[in-house]
Amino acid sequence: MRTTTVVIGAGHAGLAMSRCLTDRSIDHVVLERGQVANSWKTERWDSLRLLTPNWQSRLPGYDYQGNEPDGFRTMQETVRYIERYADAIGAPVRTETTVTSVRPDPGGYLVSTNQGTWRAPSVVLASGACNLPSIPSVASALPVSIRQISPLDYRNPDQLEPGGVLVVGASASGIQIADEIHRAGRPVTLSVGEHVRVPRSYRGRDIKWWMDSVGLLDEFYTEVDSIERVRRLPSLQLMGSDDRRDSDLNQLTARGVRLVGRLVGFAGGKAQFSGSLGHLCALADLKMNRLLERIDQWAADHLDEELEPPCRFEATRVEPNPPLLLDLVANGIRTIVWATGFRPDYSWLDVPVFDPKGRLKHDGGVVASPGLYVMGLPFLRRRKSSLIDGAGADAMDLSGHLEAWLKTGDGRRKTGEQDRTRETGQGRRATGDEERTRESVPGRGAGTQGRVSSRPSP
User: Fold this and answer.
1) Same domain for 125 and 138?
2) Exposed e or buried b per residue across 237-266, where buried means at least 16 C-beta atoms within 10 angstroms of its C-beta
């Protein structure tokens, strides 16, 4: 089977690319190992909601038009949103099609699957950034009596062993899981490493509204000092909830969650922690206050309306001498949840495009192999690249690069069947009272502004 572009993955990133390829009349197919939105369906815990408000679910040609723009979608609602998007754009998705290898082939790439083989001059990797949990090697030293689980397998507190729980990692996944388990009546200890503290709301607006308005989420990857460092930053300490509550460490300790430092190892059934807890919390507080200062300055320069006055939040409270050792059995800890991050799975990618640490080499999504692209990674092209809201702008940029390469490079597009406009998806309008069609999100060159905003007006 032949096509011009094979897109691997039918989540929000792959579907955004499909829409942009259709807009450019580029023949393509979207291969999905399960069903549309497969990871959202099968690898999220029961109570999880999006961290971004509903209005920020913006895909090319598809904006939120419901009655709760400031609410937070459940996973079931998110799945339905992505499924409707796939139908509305007529995405050429092949479901239950597992890619087993991608390797160079004369004229492009050979994509092998359990449903046959595809040849194409170009391939877009949109299989996700969170395919595998990043569990530290010290986990191998745990006693066999302690159960280990990652957020990809966690569903609810009922599945855990009776007794206490040690949650390792205090970014978005860690704080939400720690909060839920503790609310279920279980004693929880939270191991805190580097983290990014922000309030859910500030001066009467959601923090995501401020970050979007100020332009922080549109910051381009060439505009930061060290893109590799920024790409490794942890996610924001946020959760989506009806009461819009904060989820920082002070809120957790007020409810009884115990804080310890960064986990460094296990020995003799005891967990070992660093003594850097106070320093890491002070650093997170400092960075949060810098963000709030930037917001205050922007508000003073751009908004005329009456706002709540500027404020600063209480510093993170930390024990004077948090424990450096914790006897797991003596403290009744039966389960460890490794909320230590995720990584993509490219074990099927047989193309020499990895650095010595096994990370995919790319320049803003243009992979170090002609005709190969990637979508959906943290700060791929913009700070918001890994969000649903960031997929459209990145897809517009990369589909434009792909189109230019097809016309001028070794993957010069053939005329005829591959060059005609696909009827499916071209110009189709979304149905229902929740979404509407708009023009695709425009791209943005380095240092230029290209944001399309459909957030609620202040």
Assistant:
1) no
2) bbbbbeeeebbbbbbbbeeebbbbbbbbeb
| 69-102 burial: b if 16+ Cβ within 10 Å, else e | ebbbbbbebbbebbbbbbebbbbbbbeebebeeb
Q: Which two tokens stand for residue 396?
A: 């517009």
Paired with 349 in beta bridges are 102
CA atoms within 13 A on the CB side of 420: 5
Q: Which domain holds residue 286?
A: 134-198+236-338
The secondary structure element, H or E, covering residue 286 is helix 277-302
Helix (H, G, I), strand (E, B) or coil at 175: helix
On whether the pTM is more than 0.85, the answer is: yes
- Whole-number Å distance between alpha carbons of 131 and 137: 18
Per-residue pLDDT band for 441 (boundaries 50, 70, 90) equals very low
CA distance 209 to 93: 33
Distance CA 328, CA 333 (A): 5
Number of domains in the chain: 2
Query: What are the pLDDT digits (tens) for 188-227?
Result: 999 999 999 999 999 999 999 999 999 999 999 999 999 9
Q: What is the DSSP letter of 271?
A: E
Q: What are the tens digits of pLDDT across the range 26-47?
A: 999 999 999 999 999 999 999 9
pLDDT in tens, 274-291: 999 999 999 999 999 999
Looking at this protein, which amino acid is placed at residue 254?
Answer: A
Look up the CATH number of the domain holding residue 90.
3.50.50.60
What is the per-residue pLDDT for 439? 32
Two tokens, residue 397? 């940029």
Task: Indicate the Cα dihedral angle 80, 423, 426, 371, nearest 10°.
Answer: 90
Q: How far apart are CA 47 and CA 77, in angstroms?
A: 12
**For residue 210, what are its two tokens?**
């401020």
